Amino acid sequence: MKILILGSGSFAxxxxxxxxxxNGFNVVGINRSPVKSKEYWPWIKxxxxxxxxxxxxxxxxxxxxxxxLKSINPTHIIDFMGQGMVAQSWxxxxxxxxxxxxxxxxxxxxxxxxxxxxxxxRASTPEVYGSNNSFINEDSHFKPSTPYAISHAAIDFxxxxxxxxxxxxxxxxxxSNFYGEGQQLYRVIPRAILSCxxxxxxxxxGNGMSRRSFIYSSDIAESIKLLLFKAQNKSEFNFSGxxxxxxKDLIKLICxxxxxxxxxxxxxxxxxxxxxxIYRLDCRKAKQTFNWSPNVNLKTGLQKTIQWIEQNIHxxxxxxxxxxxxx
Length: 327
Description:
By secondary structure, this protein is an alpha/beta fold. The protein folds into two domains: 3-178 and 214-239, Rossmann fold; 184-212 and 244-278 and 298-317, UDP-galactose 4-epimerase, domain 1. It is built from eleven helices and twelve strands. α2 (62-72) packs parallel to α3 and α5 packs across α10. It is globular.
């Protein structure tokens, strides 16, 4: 068995990579960027023997990627690769469509030609369903509201067609918001923690009344392994934390844990365009099929994430906390 993670440098990608490596799996990572420092990813200190990680820009050398994929010849693939960021997708929709749909379809054709492939797992997003006050199950209709969400919905449809036409062995997971140690500093939870620990203002988008559920890194890894090794082919599953919270209350909770004043830390800023107000993922299918439920509650996960940032606060204080687009 050989497991390949595409987008191994994403937050979920590195969390899964470290989990699989720790558990003795033969795992290879492909990512545009090289491995981050031990401050970002504390787990790299445990692997003195190194690990199989390839820095490669698929967008610039697609044909070379095809050859590389054949040389690795994995039995299982997890795909986190793609253009992220929801609000920014309105600034250049073509980039999101070309990356998340056109280039992804090329990658999938290359994957389809592999001789030993047993399972391809794609990490999708609840954004494909759009904002919805009701709980959304895997059979719910797509209603995307941003170029980011449209691109994900389109490639999910494409995978379903590949399953029907070629019996392609895919599973799709849709997850509530990720968080945990190693997450990019511009994401809402790390950035709020940094503001609390340094006294710098945290800009809260709009009134902070959009509601979200969050899923901690170890629960992400466990759910992906279920998709890899337990899920039937041509299947789709929702995975979510079971605590729903407004972004405003999330920031208040972080302030409370770090002994900070919400009023002193937070500054209200403009809301982002086309923001979905709420996602409610119905996870009964995962619970009935796998007996899955999240193991880490929100407060415990936040405490773990705060501890990681506290231990590296001098390093992170000098890092850029803003999103920077990379070609």
